[in-house]
Amino acid sequence: GNSVTQMEGPVTLSEEAFLTINCTYTATGYPSLFWYVQYPGEGLQLLLKATKADDKGSNKGFEATYRKETTSFHLEKGSVQVSDSAVYFCALHENSGGSNYKLTFGKGTLLTVNP
Amino acid sequence: ETGVTQTPRHLVMGMTNKKSLKCEQHLGHNAMYWYKQSAKKPLELMFVYSLEERVENNSVPSRFSPECPNSSHLFLHLHTLQPEDSALYLCASSHRQGGYGYTFGSGTRLTVV
Q: What is the separation of C-alpha B13 from the centre of its chain, rounded to a whole number of angstroms?
């Protein structure tokens, strides 16, 4: 079956530091990949996505590149801010056609950015 | 506002109470989901509705009873809950072809006392 593995948190950084949160996946086909962010007290919000190999998703200074050869979708940001403190979830959807609606989520990585 | 509205945002209930959580979306989505998020545990998919038909029920205790009267509304009816049911309950919606991702509501923070 499908699975998503994220790096264990928590991750604590100083403001303006470089961020990487690793995500690798297992899928039998050609999945779409997503990063969601959950700010304190809120639901999950779609941060970025990529639908095929070598695509780069980007939003709000965050980027992730779909690497089929390493089955990875690592999240990066060049300079984090205190407002980026949140839990980040990597997820995949396998495009097997029909009514295939399920997303498979990783366990989430808590990021804390200190001023 | 994400397009998926959950009410109430916070709920405290006793173990003998009956209450309902409500979720509403007007995004034209035709699949809806209930998730449970507990501290230090992964997201747990509880129920999936596709075109108002329940298509997945992941071994959820019968004290949780979902209802999907139409494609825009989803309820979670609660009765005789246990303290361990205290959690954030998240509703989400999507197109049946889920490759576009989900839209989540802000959740209901449930405390069972």
A: 17
In this complex, which of B50, B55, B106 lies closest to A42 when CB atoms are compared? B106
Let me know how long chain A is.
115
Q: Give the mean model confidence (pLDDT) for residues B85-93.
A: 95
What is the per-residue pLDDT across B3-19, written as a single tens digit (0 to 9) for each? 999 999 999 999 989 99
Q: What is the DSSP string of A31-93?
A: EEEEEEEE-TTS-EEEEEEE-STT-EEEETTEEEE-BTTTTB--EEESS--GGG-EEEEEEEE
Largest alpha-carbon pair distance within chain A?
A: 48
User: Alpha carbon B98 to chain centroid distance?
Assistant: 17
Residue A89 at interface with chain B, using a CB cutoff of 8 Å: yes
Q: Report the residue of chain A nearest B10, measured CA to CA.
A: A41
How many whole angstroms separate alpha carbon B23 and alpha carbon B108? 10
